[in-house]
# Entry
Amino acid sequence: MRSLFMKIFLWFWLAVTLVGAIGVVIALTTNPRAAAIARYEKQISEAGRTLADAYKAGGARALAEEEARIGRQSRISVLLFGEGGPLSGRFTSPRGRRLAGTALLTGEPQFGPGRRGLWYAQPVEGDFAVLAEIPHPSPLARVLDPRQIGLRLSVTFIVAGVVCYLLARSLTAPILQLQKAARQVAAGALTTRVGPLFGERRDEIADLGRDFDVMTERIEALLSGQRRLLRDISHELRSPLARLNVALELARQRSGADADKALDRIGREADRLNQLIGELVTLTLLESGAEKIEGKGVALLPLVQAVADDANFEASDRGRLVRIVSAEDVTVAGSEEMLRRAIENVVRNAVRYTEEGTTVDVNIGRVRKEGRQTATVRVRDHGRGVPESALAQLFRPFYRVADARDRQTGGTGIGLAITERAVVLHGGTVKASNDPEGGLVVEICLPCAEA
# Structure
């Protein structure tokens, strides 16, 4: 069945049909006469014994008075019969007489339709039979009969619940699979496909799954082409850049002192271009998964200390300092070089944007998250911070905040992206936030190495 609309329509139709059919079956198998008799049977039996005792004690007159009393109290017309008919002499219909005579003769209860209800005859003490006219229950009373309504409601709830559960599961299971696949794609698993999960389905959800696969294939192709383009451009730029450096050195040797300033500027720009190419190559390798994790134990304290010392040496020329405020001896598993590069990018970024005369504070600690030990490296600068709306975008390649991170700072916009890719490859997370007292805080969380 292809149409999701038809599935919903037919499933609900089936549910209503099943509930109606079960209600009809219950109505047909439940005898209203038997239910009415069962309701009054004990009362009629007790009235029969009372009438028999009254007849034995006071004869027909006492019996007539007792029949009248019971009729007033119970609103049920009762007569005591003997072999000759009604012992009180009261008139009754021929059908009632026959039922009472049959009950007296056979010793078995008898019932049949009456003018105002149901005739019911029951033998009493062997020598007598009591005849009672039971009123028919109204349709509403039959529906609301507590002995039947519980059964009907229970069956209705069970059948409707089973059918609706199957319907809900049929509708939501593929949607949940799509949701899981979308999260995997968002996490970077572009090879995720949902078509094989839907099997032979031919409804709208299956069509959506196939469109999802086409979309992910297109995204994968575009990103692969982008990475390949960046990698090719980076490699192609290496050769002319190397020739430019050679030509620059030759120009230094052959030119006079007047050209030194211009040549120095050319050299700085060439170095910056070489740095940008190196970061592009690194980012491409991290995104493609070509960079492998060694998986050996790495002590964070000496690694961060070395990074902080190098950054402090460079920052001191610009009136800034880098210091480790607090540190714990924590070990993580991974690539030492990749982790060094990731932390160095964050620290250098903090040095670049902290105010002159301030410090970049680094903290190394250990916390427990989701039942496991996690190492944290927290880097805080004392700059202007970042707008809240831009915090989640800081780790995108080439992203810049217009009012704080422009070209004049000298950054390429790739360092934090490399940090994010490297941390994720190590099974960790990185996030940025503004400190309440000012400045930007970048926190790297990495799972601790198993003992």
Notes: Residues 204-254 form the longest helix (51 residues). Residues 139-144, 403-408 have pLDDT under 50 and may be disordered. The longest strand covers residues 359-369. The chain has three domains: 31-137, 188-290, 296-447.
